[in-house]
Each structure stands twice: as structure tokens, then as C-alpha cells.
Prior knowledge:
mainly alpha
Amino acid sequence: MYLKLGHREIPLHIVLAVVGAVAVVAVLITATVMVAGRSVDSSSETVEIPVVAGRFEWIDAEDLVVEDELVRGTEIRWIPFRPRRERWTESDVEEHWIDPRRIGIDVLEAQVNENIRLILENVP
């Protein structure tokens, strides 16, 4: 069996040898990185950073509080056209409601009609 690359035919055993060698190199690199990472994480090699008193006096606990994402996600980020309502009356709904099934139906209908016309154009 051969692997054909352009005008060259490479025997299958050479292709398998190259793929195997690349796999072995990848495993060796991964193992080396993992072993080196464990030795760096050991506590005997940690460096103590001296704490200087008064160095960060301008930072207090309030500066380190993480923002509440729920509040940020529920804030209104636009200028409303009208006051926000909690409940709508039936007359308001009838005035402003657009059935989602009807949105874009005229555009879709025009596309379908054009496609049908193009299909039937070639029919004798």
C-alpha cells in the first residue's frame, strides 16, 4: 500500500513510522512539562514576598468586592420610550402586539414565489 502525495507514492510503513515518531515526541513533551510543573509547584521552592506596611493603604475591603452580576444583568441599558409597566391591559396588548409568526412573512413569501418562478421557468 502507498500514500499518494502529488506525484510521489510513499510506502505505508514509512507513513506509519513517521506518525508513530510524532506521537512519541508529543507524549515525551507532555510528560516533561507535567513533571517540570509538579516540581515547580512544590512548597520548598516558593519565594516569600515581604509585606511592606502602609504600601497599600489606599485599598480597602470595599475596593475588593466583586460586582453583583445579577444586578448588572438586569439593569436597563437603554432609554425607554415610555414608562415601564409591570402589567399590560388587553387594549395595550392589542395595540402593540405583533404576532411573531407574521414577522417577515412578506419577505419570505416573496423569496418563495421567486424560487418557484425560477424552477417553473424552464418547464415547457
